[in-house]
Amino acid sequence: MKIAIVCYPTYGGSGVVATELGKYLANRGHQIHFVSYAIPSKLSTFCDNIFFHGVEMFTYPLFEFPLYSISLSSKLVDVAIFNDIDLIHVHYAIPHATSAYLAREILKYEKHNKRIKIITTLHGTDITLVGLEPSFQKTLKFSIEHSDGVTAVSKFLKEKTISSYNIQNDIEVIYNFVDTEKYKKLSTPELKKLREHYAPNNEKILIHTSNFRKLKRVTDVIKIFHNVAKKISSILILIGDGPERSECEKLSRELNISGKIYFMGKQDSITELLSIADIFIMPSESESFGLSALEAMSTSLPVISSNIGGLPELNINGVTGYTVDVGDIERMSDLTIDLLSNESEYKKFSINARKRAEDFKAEKIIPLYEKYYEKILSK
User: pTM for the full model?
Assistant: First the structure.
């Protein structure tokens, strides 16, 4: 198949999933054309069967903001015509599904020799945050219902989309996936030295990774760690960057624990850091799936998370970790302490976390996308 994939090129979950999906599909013999305003962050090495098409962003004095959606539609028309594209797979509904619809209409208007199919994958904030903006609601509903196929990354997101927008389309749930060979617990002399660097007195290591947006509640992570550190000698590693980082650094100083917290910023590879950690904390107030939690579980880390969105579909309470009400810092702290204090229980949770992650391994999920593509193309 010849597939155009539209995604944001940034470090966010939707861009990562879209890029990794494209790479796997290319390795399975499909021709993949990424279309975005910049090369996706995870597309850093050459891959056969993968092509990139940049969306040109023009500025004119008349227009206060760049016309990205229209430029994207025009680029999709060109990519479809000159590369004989079979389908356009857009990740994130707004504005990508809208741009793809316009591109398809232009192709019909120009009497293109075949009808291009559109598949829209919903990732979360495009529905739960952006889409709920009143000015976008009708456009979002229209774009989803005029897609030939729609997928969601969790049952929660499917149900949320249908109930919030009264969507008439059938929505296929295809979960996010993980490379279980890349994300697995490593044990090397170098990693032993790395752990000794961060935890010279054999402290327990708590870890969290996110884009530091408010809904990730990274300040809760720091408060949980503060409680844990009172009972168990430990340190905290925070990976990522974003608008709440300054507030988090300020809180760590106010609690007098800044010397025990490492702000690592954005990292291209986090397997090494996950491998030296003991537990992953994810207290988000909104999470349609929880890709970073899946990566942690694949690295044999138990997860302490909130019980919202798609997280309970991934993190099985009392088996791979614990799920707790949003904002219940005391409960999350107590469960973390209990788990870190019970070696046999911790080992069981660690094994279960890895086993659960294997249910979402790429080799199981990618064929589901191929099967869905074939189903849509056959209509």
Answer: 0.91
